[in-house]
Design brief:
74% helix, rod-shaped
Amino acid sequence: MQSENRLLEDLARLAGGAFSSFTTLKDEAEARVHEKLEKILGGMDLVKRDEFDAVKEMAIKARMENAALGEQIKNLGAEIINRRPESPSPRKKSTKTNKSTEKTGQPSKRKR
């Protein structure tokens, strides 16, 4: 019986040692894969998450400001339309003609 207990103890130690070896091997493999992925992704010129979130917040703020400014422009336009006095008749523009243009159809050339 004593030999059976020793055999089981030895098998348990062997299994525990193998398990810790496999755990160490797994951790080492994960670290190497992580390093390789960082190297590959670093060469792709990708944006980091925190930078993306910062730009996203700036875009949201800019859209809100743009909407507010659009509303202000709309209100100011309505205010300008409401302030305009109605004139009875539009003004006529004076039409001056150049005498030299009437004769030749071309503007006169002045000597300098």
